[in-house]
Amino acid sequence: MSILVDEKSRVVVQGITGREGMVRTRLMKDYGTRVVAGVTPGKGGGEVHGVPVFDSVAEAWEKAGEIDISVIFVPASLVKNAALEAIDAGVKLLVLVPDRVPIFDVLEIIRLARDKDAHFVGPNTLGLVSPGKAVLGMIGGRAERAKEWFRPGNTGVSSRSGGMTSAISYYLTEEGLGQSTIVHVGGDAILGLTHPEVMELFEQDEETRMVVMFGEIGTTQEERVADLIETGKFTKPLIAFIGGKAAKAGTRFSHAGAIVEGSRGSYESKVKRLREVGVHVADSISDIPKIAKKLQNSNYSKVT
User: Fold this and answer.
1) Torsion angle of the four alpha carbons 131, 134, 139, 144, in this order, in degrees rounded to the nearest 10
2) Of these residues, 184, 195, 255, 280, which one is catalytic?
3) Average pLDDT in the 156-164 region?
4) Which of 17, 24, 146, 167 sits most deeply, having the most CB atoms within 10 A of its CB?
5) CB within 8 A of 203, min separation 6: which ones?
């Protein structure tokens, strides 16, 4: 199994005729993702890498069949309209790749998604991978690299950093630990699926035996994961690394969502809270595969 996407998922690419849309469609198709349609208003009737292009998501749904997922590669100012169009058409999962999407636009997407029982990853995300099944977005860069770096297995990965999403997954693969699904939740302060929601999905996935989480200062995502563990809503072994140890209050660390105001969302508060509920907090990135290997060898015991 996997979460969010598998080899059967039917995908549309909005913005498929743009530079990023074309390049990433090639990545997804070469990896094996079922990209069944593309959308660019005014460009309907054409093709990109053998994928038919339509003028709207509704037209794509009508002519290419039911669509499960939309991956959006349009300028940030157009993301809201593209996302609302996809949700209105019936798409239940969106991947919002662009960064700098206005906050009020994201809030509107959240509102409609809740009304329509839809979900989205991002914005400001590289996407996600279910190794051996499908890639959504741009993780791995090329299909050959993605197939080499990410291998099927039972370790889930959830990360707030695009670069660390790939790096951690690669290090796990090097240690012989495959991944069930790899999710870059995005680097912004307001997102669709966050760490806690991803953990709940991993909890329900029978294939996932343990999870690695790359967190950062700012927001309360990691503390809310600790709350899930404390209330028994997430029970699988969790390895966490928190970036931004040296960042000062009021400064931004790497991403728009990684900023500390006072003690809220600080490195110290996150690490303390996670350790209180039994999370294996790694002091360095290189410790993650070592801890994961020990957990595997102990049959995924949560005991530290």
Assistant:
1) 70
2) 255
3) 96
4) 24
5) 233, 234, 235, 236
DSSP 126: -
User: What is the predicted pLDDT for the residue at 247?
Assistant: 56
Residue range 102-108: mean pLDDT, rounded: 97
pLDDT in tens, 29-41: 999 999 999 999 9
Give all domains of the chain, ordered by start, each with its CATH number: 1-126 (3.40.50.720), 151-299 (3.40.50.261)
- ∠108-218-130 over CA atoms, to 5°? 70
Known catalytic residue: 255?
yes
Cβ–Cβ < 8 Å for 2, 129:
no
CB atoms within 10 A of CB 18: 17
Angle, helix 57-64 to helix 79-89, in steps of 10 degrees: 40
Residue 165 token pair: 């999403």
Residue 48: pLDDT over 50: yes
Distance of CA 141 to the CA centre of its chain: 15
